[in-house]
Structure prediction request, 437 residues.
Amino acid sequence: MAKCYVRMIALMMILLLGSVTGLVAGGQQEMEEEAEEVDAGSVSVVATWGGNEQDVFNEMIAPFEEETGVTVNYTGTRDMDAVLTTRVQAGNPPDIAAFANPGKLAEFARQDELVDLSSVFEMSRIRDEYAQGWINRGTIDGTLVGLFTKAAAKGFVWYDPATREQVGFEIPETWQEMLSVSRAIANNEDLAPWSVGIESGAATGWVGTDWLEHIFLKIHGPELYEDWYNGELAWTSDEMRTVWEEWGKIVGNPDMIYGGRQYVISTNFGEAHAPVFREDPAAVFHFQATFLQGFINDQFPDLEAGDDFTFFRFPSVAEEYANSIVASGDVFGMFNDTEQSRALIRYLSTSAAQEYWIETGAISPNRAVSLDAYDNPLTREAATAMNDSEIVVFDASDLMPSEVNQQFFSAVTDFVSNPGNLDQILQTMEETRQAAY
Prediction:
């Protein structure tokens, strides 16, 4: 089953990013058709986006609002799970929500809180424009409840080419080479090897889950990776312990991290790249997904992608799993079936809408978006990396039950604070697993 799943996801990404002929985006046309059908009113949207991402979302919905007369009332929150749970329990859910965690989408779907989107979309268009893998991932117990609108390729190590020239390191191809390069840099009194920040409000710690997912995949491969997020692998197992110990060689060593442990815990994930790219760099590497470009552009608008900042792929551990990558995506679900919410989610499904996300470094799940739209060389490179990967899996923590996901965030924070407490951290995770699955 795991091998079939991996092949399906890999094919999904190839179809997603490949050129598509004979498809018409139709975003403006569909929006004009909707404008004739929808009475002016409002639609409420809740998502985690702030800063540059919120600005892009506002740009995206501006033509929709102008064409339809519908007002989009957006609420951004980092405490997404708590906000949605509270509002749903109070009988006051938003019309539409964008989930960063598909596990929470599934939870609300199984509570019969979400609208069947097959009754909203013209499904022949959806099947033409979306690879089946994205449709399957938005389908819970046979019902389509989720629409993916932007995706990210994860597992990139970002750096400044000028700093590389100054330090003189070779791009590491293996985990051991990366550790060796990091140790060599640590001996330089002026630079730290890594800048890491895991603060993210109620989701503090998620950055560390990405690290651990990549190390896990590169060591153990996709089959055990699937067992892990399905709750079939004990957190106290030797396989799991190895992953945490490897990450600890970086985040558990004060010489490896800029600012020490307190900096890592207290620095927001959207700001942690700054020591690498500022005029007087203090660190060399930063680990993050493709969406980091939006944050870099926001904080350092004069920097040019490819010239002033770039990345290399997360290095291999086991050779047989070297050509692998982790992906994630934001998925919309609809709580309230109104004319306005139907019109908005239809618009959000189009290539015309999703092209807005490309400037943030995101990849559109709508395959009617041409590769020519990716004028940023790094986004194109990330798309190529995803295309060329033999193994593509979805973010494991996003597929875990909400309570496991949240405890995983806490475990990361606890580990950064006290790496020597790993036994208790893993035991707590194991108790959470046993209660949740």
About this structure: The chain has 20 helices and twelve strands. Residues 2-152+327-374 form a domain with the D-Maltodextrin-Binding Protein; domain 2 fold (CATH 3.40.190.10). Residues 1-26 have pLDDT under 50 and may be disordered.
